[in-house]
Amino acid sequence: MSIGKGTIVALVAGMLIAASTVSTGFAAAKPAATDVRFGMQDQATRFVVELSEPVGFQIFTLPDPYRVVIDMSEVAWRLSGETANVGRGVVSGFRYGLFRPGTTRIVLDVNKPVRVKRSFLLPPSGDQGHRFVLDLEPVTPATFDDEARLTAIETPASALEKPPEKPSQTSSVEKSAGFSPDMQVRKPPVPDMGKAAARVGPRVVVIDPGHGGVDPGAIGHGGTREKAIALAAALEIKEQLEATGRYKAIMTRDRDIFIRLRDRVALARDAGADLFISIHADSIGSAKVKGASVYTLSENASDKEAEKLAAKENKADIIAGVNLAQENPEVTDILIDLAQRESMNEGARFANMLIGELRRATGTLQKSHRFAGFAVLKAPDVPSVLLEMGYLSNPTEEKNLKSKAHRRKLAVAIVQAIDRYFAHHDQLSRS
Ligand SMILES: [Zn+2]
Q1: Domain for residue 161, yes or no?
Q2: How far is the CA of 216 from the centre of ligand 1 (A)?
Q3: CA 217–ligand 1 middle distance (angstroms)
Q4: For residues 147 and 137, what is the distance between their CA atoms, to the nearest angstrom?
Q5: Alpha helices, DSSP H only, in 11-140?
Q6: What confidence category does residue 7 fall into, taking pLDDT thresholds of 50, 70 and 90?
Q7: d(CA 233, CA 247)
Q8: Is 326 strand, coil or helix?
Q9: CA 306 / ligand 1 centre spacing (Å)
Q10: In the predicted model, is pLDDT for residue 185 greater than 70?
Q11: Domain span at residue 373?
Q12: Taking Cα atoms as reference points, which of 189, 170, 52, 43 lies closest to residue 118?
């Protein structure tokens, strides 16, 4: 079978899926993925996922860079050891995780254009359980493009199961985080910074743990994943912020799930956020570099490293196998209008206060406040900053960021900076 961009292979083990999703009023146990392996089969690269039961799946390919995306009904990952033969054949790397409620995504990075030669589910036999099998074979770039053009059909939203109704605790965040592929930023820019003074009730701070689900973010010296550290830190910040009674803290995600960059921005705007803080931890080639740094939005980057970092952070949707050809270009273009200037200035003001607190608490980089075109900081009416808490590539800092005590210290500094920022606002509105 050949397949290109926008083409979908959908196979559903109908009866078994139907049986497993019968609503009983109890949360049914999810199918488990227990092993993943790569191998060669004739000229094809074979990818196998061992499963506790059959699942529905869809496969599509993407260019720039070449990727193969497998969406499955949500599975629990119970891989025992190291994955054998990563980098075998055409596959140079892979990742997996929750893409949206009800859908697990696996992204295979391939080092050349490929087509799906075969994909199928195997029933148990001998000592083998259920298996998902995918065979990939190389094609020329021209063939890849041709097939994409010939078979360019509208991608159905999903042939998989409907996302299950979530318990109310997480549903509001996830609903407003927007899993509709066509979600647009809806509100017009509101450049009136006097709104903070006029408002009643607690200030709204949106905390955005970077990455998540199929996008692990940076990988640390000892294998720590940025997505997990960012979530743990964000939860700590939320707790401390709300303990003051002065703030309403809203998370863009509160579990290990992928969220598009534009949906993070949209959530902040829909929530009428007074401040948006995206939480990250970087990793670079040198194990020596350590310290926190804070970034704000700018058309022109302050320096090469900031520009590179923004490019890396802006790749989250590509990492997660989102088809950017179907996206509104507004997200990836950094066009800054006048309405945004005020928010940018406010963001920069907060960044400086945050640097001050962090320098006292945990230490920062030399050049600690820098700017570049970060897509996640683009809400025109919400002052936004991106915090890199430190470097997971530095063994000491990785150890620190894994410790709850250290994250608590960071959160204290962040809450202090937020207090100072809004105190400054109150002063301005009184004078
Ligand atoms: Zn990051």
Answers
A1: no
A2: 9
A3: 5
A4: 14
A5: 14-20
A6: very low
A7: 17
A8: helix
A9: 12
A10: no
A11: 168-430
A12: 43
Pairwise CA distance, residues 369 & 363, whole Å: 13
pTM recorded for the entire structure: 0.77
Compute, in angstroms, the gap from residue 308 CA to the centroid of ligand 1: 12
Place of tokens 């629990």: 76
Same domain, 141 and 175: no
Segment 370-388, tens digit of pLDDT: 999 999 998 889 999 999 9
Q: Which residues contact 5 (CB under 8 A, 6 or more apart)?
A: 60, 61, 62, 63, 144, 148, 152, 323, 325
pLDDT in tens, 417-430: 999 999 988 887 77
pLDDT computed for residue 368 by the predictor: 81
Count of other CB atoms within 10 angstroms of residue 385: 27
Cα 198 to ligand 1 centre (Å): 34
CA distance linking residue 163 with residue 157, whole number of Å: 12
How many angstroms separate the alpha carbon of residue 318 from the centre of ligand 1?
13
Looking at the fold, whether 134 and 273 belong to one and the same domain comes out as no
CATH number at residue 268: 3.40.630.40
Residue 269 burial (10 A CB sphere; 0-12, 13-18, 19+): buried
Q: CA–CA separation, 373 vs 307, rounded Å?
A: 7
Count of domains forming the chain: 2
* Phi, psi (degrees; rounded to nearest 5) at 410: -60, -45
Tell me the CA–centroid distance for residue 386 and ligand 1, in Å: 9
- Find the 231 Cα to ligand 1 centroid distance in Å: 11
Question: What's at 140, amino acid-wise?
Answer: T
- Picking from 388, 381, 310, the residue whose alpha carbon sits closest to that of residue 351 is 388
Domain boundary among the residues 121, 150, 179 is at 150
